[in-house]
Design brief:
globular, about 130 residues, mainly alpha
Length: about 130
């Protein structure tokens, strides 16, 4: 029933499967996304940014890609880029607002007054 937990488990499963391959082929959007999440977790933020931008060229409306790009930007200290990416992720999928409110990697963004509108509202707003 916990959507965030299910999403995290799915992401980590894909990352593990990808790491088990001898030479990962990063051709699909999901391959690039999974590699980017692994790079974010390893704090290889430039690599993550490049992978996510390539994936966004293939799928410009990939809300999860915009969200991950916002996480990478936040961790890199690029608050303007983070706001733009997270805002787009929420536009594409309003459930991303709830994820953003809970994601510990977005703590610096949540404390920024310029980003306050991204975190206002929540699951009750999406149900309305």
């Amino acid at each position: 029933p916990d959507v965030a937990l299910k999403h995290s488990a799915t992401v980590y499963l894909r990352i593990c499967q990808q790491r088990m391959q001898s030479e990962p082929q990063l051709k699909t959007v999901e391959d690039r996304y999974n590699a980017a999440v692994a790079a974010i977790n390893d704090r290889r933020l430039e690599d993550a940014d490049q992978l996510l931008r390539l994936a966004l060229k293939q799928d410009p409306k990939g809300a999860h890609l915009h969200f991950a790009l916002g996480v990478a930007a936040t961790l890199s200290g690029d608050i303007a880029g983070a706001i733009s990416s997270v805002e787009r992720a929420i536009e594409l999928d309003p459930q991303n607002r709830v994820l953003a409110q809970r994601d510990s990697d977005l703590a610096a963004l949540r404390s920024n007054p310029l980003a306050a509108r991204l975190f206002a509202g929540g699951s009750d707003d999406e149900a309305a």
